[in-house]
């Protein structure tokens, strides 16, 4: 079945990347009925791009025809081909016009005019035999003597020297160009699409050393003048690959950890980021990793995300329409929970105390006067950060602003992007934002003004949402975790690894390879073997605890963590501890939790492909390579916990018709003897050497 292809068009309020003639890129927002200024390259109305496809080249028009004009593809192709064409004057040289015309007659018609092929001409001349129209050899061509062959070789040598000439005799100063800047400004003011082309043609004609330039020098000179005098732009979408290249080449790459598009693709592939999963991310790149994950999960753009102002005004109008009957509605909603509470069974004092002391592990009850807030169970991105708010400023070009969530409520990330701090995850009782606001009785709440009531409901909804996020995160079960941070990795891995489910993918990015090589060494076979030996020796059969691995890691020595009851805490303190865990010197992480950590790297290098001049571009950006570590989360199983059960199938003995039971006979482990059944009868036990 043939599927129709839909071309992506530029929509209002879209963020696009405009490639300028100076080989730089500018991020621009297409606001309707506005003017987009590009500095010395001019300006144009934003409406000229609305509804147009991406990846088109436009010419900026000034004067009466103010706007944009598309550049035909045929014109762009002709300019590209012209830069690699040798002038035809250098290829027309022959001492005998008749033979030259005859040779040109027999030349392959597929060779383009103006392009000489020295290798092909030399091969034809060396053969010295040409076939006529009748299929017979021409007598004149057969009679070519050694002198004619030498002349042809000399001609080819001259052509080769002409192509490989140098720029020694060129004086690149003001005297080389006879065209004045007054004439150039006069042509600029004439306007029109042909003014730039006319300036370039006049510059080439008035150059005193244009005929002495090599083909490569002439192509570079023409390209430089074209970029300077032709006001052309190219509009490309601000997707993740283009946006990443724009940030790393023209912004501050250190703020985004110098992450490249190739490394980003490796991270998304090894983490198996896809729609429907739950992922944990530590992003110190300003939100670039979150944007790449959202693009793969279908959360980066939404249908109504491009028009935030319209949605905001609609919500405001709806709020004004329902303002009159708001008090009556709140009274009706407030009466419903009271009836349910009266019919509910009474709880004991112990249960009440546990519910108050453990707000992060108990289900959250809906408050009165507003609807209970919920979070999605799948297709979510949970951001773990160190500050009060996560730094996700790079999500603004995708119409999602964390500082102005009121205007981005229709964006998919507003509900599927969850964030919490290390303090909220490891010690939730110490975070003031998770404290429940003081409960206001319903009679007093109804007497307050609408602004105070809405503020109270907003605080309650925020506190409930944070509690739900903390509760779901502490339960774990994430499909994968991506770490892109400059923090010390041992503490980060110890925090993130227990939250992954079995076979969950752990991906770590680092601009240098040294931190990742340390992680690989921490999970080496020798460390894992020694860790299991020490752990087996320190185990006690009487110790049993229901604490999860996360609770063991976040154990508070001051006994202030409400997730651990006092009885279990005393039992845990009395257990023997591993020597390695006291200082984390030999075992910074648990080496039995990660399987096969591997380091990957990938980088695309742009090459200049020219005859005899093929090398990487000297103007390409350097910087760090970027490395990605990938590992799989596994659950360690102690020795003796795995058993192999089943019945070994018997196989027939070839030739004798007998059977050998047990897949090759039973072996006496104590004496190293083997017994076999031959012809259905048990024979004497044969003593054999145990080669094992």
UniProtKB/TrEMBL annotation:
Family according to the record: Belongs to the TRM6/GCD10 family.
Biased composition annotated in UniProt, kind: Basic and acidic residues: 319-329
Keywords assigned by UniProt, alphabetized: Nucleus, tRNA processing
Entry's transmembrane regions: none
Record GO biological process: tRNA methylation
Protein name, as recorded: tRNA (adenine(58)-N(1))-methyltransferase non-catalytic subunit TRM6
UniProt feature, compositional bias: Basic residues: 308-318
Pfam families noted in UniProt: Gcd10p
Coiled-coil portions: none
